[in-house]
Amino acid sequence: MRSKLVKVEKMEVVSQLAASISHEIRNPLTVVKGFIQLLKTPSLSQDAKDRYIQIALDEINRAEAIINEYLTFAKPSSNKVERLMVDDQLRKVIQMLAPMAHMNSIEIVEELQPGAIVGNIQYFQQCFLNLIKNSIEAMPNGGTLTISSCLHGNHVIITIKDTGVGMTTEQMNRFGEPYFSTKEKGTGLGTMVAVKMIQTMQGTLHIQSEVNKGTTLTITFPEAAN
Ligand code: ADP
Ligand code: MG
Fold first, then answer.
1. Which residues surround ligand 1 with Cβ inside 6 Å?
2. Which helix (H) or strand (E) holds 108?
3. pTM for this prediction
4. Which of these, 84, 123, 184, 207, could form a disulfide with 197 (CB 3.0-4.6 Å)?
5. Measured CA angle at 143 (ends 139, 146), to 5 deg
6. Positive or negative, the Cα torsion across 19, 219, 64, 137?
7. 13-47 confidence digits (pLDDT tens)
């Protein structure tokens, strides 16, 4: 019975995400199509052509950013739920983001203790990719990113701590709200996707933040039974 319940919930989230992605991608595609059609206008000035091409490129980049927030790790028919080690999976995500951190003079501190939870590996990785990427983007002038995992009672606790720009109370309240972004080219979808995936894996998220000091996210999951 229990596994069935999990499956129904998961299917719902998967179809919700699929619907969101096609919705999100359609807007930039429509814009690209419109501007390419405009490029066919006879006797268009070079200046206008350059502008239209730039708009089309910006929109393609936006579509790509949206896909990255949802589907970096997606494989066809991979809605498997399994026992996963959070420390191993976090190491993989950190490895992916290490070049981005180094380019921004960010030191990464790993304090990873083994912990097992039940969830979908692709979702877990996508979720932490989105959250850790935000922490890196919050430190444009460098800083320290500390990622830890530990066991507490029958929970696995993961923290992501940055020494970045921090958030106001209003920004904290809007964390996870779709399209909320303070970045020039932000999608405002990364935290929404992460929060949904945490909920799917029966987890909770807690935020602590201070402007110009930094942010600590604490994500708690039930520990997997042996
Ligand atoms: P995006 O990164 O495209 O802006 P997200 O949904 O990933 O969209 O994040 C939404 C907003 O939440 C960000 O624009 C930022 O204002 C805030 N935010 C998220 N994580 C952090 C963090 N670690 N430090 C400061 N602000 C953050
Ligand atoms: Mg983001």
1. 130, 134-135, 138, 162, 164-167, 171, 175, 180-183, 186-192, 215
2. strand 106-112
3. 0.86
4. 123
5. 100
6. positive
7. 656 777 778 888 999 999 999 999 999 999 999 99
